[in-house]
Design goal:
The protein has helices at about 20-30, 50-60, 85-90, 120-130, 150-165, 180-185, 225-235, 255, 270-280, 290-300, and strands at about 5-10, 10-15, 35-40, 70, 75, 95-100, 130-135, 170, 190-195, 205-210, 210, 240-245, 310-320, 320-325, 330, 340-344. It is about 30% helix and about 20% strand. The chain is of the alpha/beta class. The mean pLDDT is about 95. The relative contact order is 0.15. The chain has a single domain, classed as Alpha-Beta Barrel (TIM Barrel).
Length: about 350
């Protein structure tokens, strides 16, 4: 029986640090295990300029758990973006890429892009600079079922983006469906991130008996067991096209339970790597964890693979119910449950 796993230190290619006191509390949980994290730019004050990106990066790193932790910042793409500043920031490694939020698809996406063709000029710049287009791949319209938003985005937008910009490197983030897995696998220059919660939950864990579990509510929502199983296969079995993106997204616990304005987001950073290890063990694929956690991501982004290592021990840990500090109280994912792995 395997009692410990030594892996190259991982990276998290999709995480939310938020702002202000929340940022100061939650940053240490992502930086405890990761060498790098991509910090999502859909903060209350959107990250759309090079100056904002530099400031946000410094703020995150100054509150991190590790001295060599690095925050990577993508640009929040809008139709009114300053193109000269955006190009400058890509060329000087201030922005790691550009993040596309279709309008009203998720938190703070009301300023996202309504007509994606209007920012095709930005995709041209990303393609020319060999930079990444990161995508929240959902369409939110009244005639689209919440469980079909990813499929509609792929069919109506992503196919055309892929066919128009054949050399553009794209990350379909937090892939949530078998349909999304199949699309990533069948197209060149495209990769996907997979969260732990999309490999652990189905819609019955969120929507049951006309009640919503707010702490399992996220965007994109978790789906059917067949989707869960497809995501597990994609992550666990030597697939070069998928890597860690926890989409750890904290909200105050009191805000999560207000059903009149349900906030999407699951906070998994206190146990994210341990959860991935447990999933890989359940799939008899522990030997592939390092590839998913530490190799596939930097290779796709064109960055160096990390030099340092960490060890996971076969040791029981109980996830605390909440992360609490000062005025911050966040419900942890997997709260109160046992995980059989623990970072040394």
């Amino acid at each position: 029986m395997t009692t410990d796993i030594k892996i190259i230190k991982p990276d998290d290619w999709h995480v939310h640090f938020r702002e202000d006191e929340m940022l100061k509390v939650v940053t240490k949980y992502s930086s405890r295990v990761n060498r790098r994290c991509i910090a999502m730019p859909n903060t209350s004050n959107l990250i759309t300029s090079s100056d904002q990106a530099v400031s946000y990066k410094k703020l995150i790193e100054s509150n991190s758990h590790s001295k060599n932790f690095e925050a990577l910042i993508p640009c929040y793409l809008t139709e009114s973006l300053n193109i000269d500043d955006f190009t400058y920031a890509l060329q000087n490694n201030i922005f790691v890429g550009g993040k596309l939020y279709p309008t009203n698809a998720t938190t703070n996406s009301q300023h996202g892009v309504n007509d994606i063709k209007k920012i095709y000029n930005i995709f041209e710049i990303l393609e020319k600079e060999n930079s990444i287009l990161l995508i929240h791949g959902e369409l939110n319209r009244n005639n689209i079922d919440i469980f079909d938003r990813e499929k509609y985005f792929i069919d109506e937008e992503l196919f055309q983006i892929r066919n128009t910009f054949k050399d553009l490197k794209i990350v379909l983030e937090h892939v949530s469906s078998e349909y999304g897995v199949d699309f990533v696998n069948s197209n060149n220059n495209i990769a996907g991130t997979i969260t732990p919660h999309h490999m652990l939950l189905t819609k019955d864990d969120v929507f049951k008996d006309k009640q919503i579990n707010p702490h399992h509510y996220c965007m994109p929502v978790v789906k059917n067991e067949s989707d869960l199983l497809s995501l597990r296969r994609a992550a666990c079995f030597e697939n070069n096209k998928f890597f860690i993106g926890t989409d750890s997204a904290p909200h105050q616990a009191k805000d999560k339970i207000q059903h009149d304005s349900l906030k999407a987001g699951i906070f998994s950073s206190p146990c994210s790597l341990e959860l991935y290890a447990s999933i890989f063990e359940e799939e008899n694929a522990l030997e592939n964890l390092e590839k998913f956690s530490s190799i596939n991501g930097p290779k796709f982004y064109g960055l160096d693979i990390n030099n340092d290592f960490l060890t996971l021990n076969k040791e029981e840990m109980i996830v605390p119910e909440y992360t609490e500090e000062g005025n911050i109280k966040v419900k942890n994912f997997f709260a109160g449950k046992k995980i059989d792995w623990k970072v040394s």
